[in-house]
Design goal:
118 residues, 1 helix, YjdM_C, three-stranded antiparallel sheet, mainly beta, elongated, YjdM, single chain
Length: 118
């Protein structure tokens, strides 16, 4: 007997299907991560995930997924594919949750939604 998928949290439809690592509702086009993914996370600990859903940890190496303008500098841009080594996870300003040091730019904070674990 196949395992039943959860109801859509948006419209409560029971027609949800899997698409890669997400669940999708054909009725309202809502996409969400399955509950099973959250079940293997430790209780009470903050979990930071990269843009593709991989859990990040202190000391990881990540690469930047899109060009980023650096505030406070005239025309400096962090290019796609720039590798950032030895990151540190923090509770930063806004949704910036990675503290790092990038060669040529110095110390800065990044959003986990613009990086991918290498």
């Amino acid at each position: 007997m196949p395992e039943s998928l959860p109801l859509c949290p948006n419209c409560a439809s029971d027609l949800a299907y899997e698409m890669g690592s997400l669940l999708v509702c054909p009725m309202c086009a809502h996409e969400w991560a399955p509950v099973e993914a959250a079940a293997d996370e430790p209780e009470g600990e903050r979990v930071v995930r990269d843009a593709v859903g991989t859990v990040l940890a202190d000391g990881d190496t990540v690469s930047i997924l899109k060009d980023l303008k650096v505030k406070g500098s005239s025309g400096n841009v962090l290019k796609v594919g720039t590798k950032v080594r030895n990151i540190r996870l923090i509770d930063g300003v806004g949704d910036h949750d990675i503290d790092c040091k990038i060669d040529g730019f110095g110390s800065m904070q990044l959003k986990s939604s613009v990086v991918k674990k290498v």
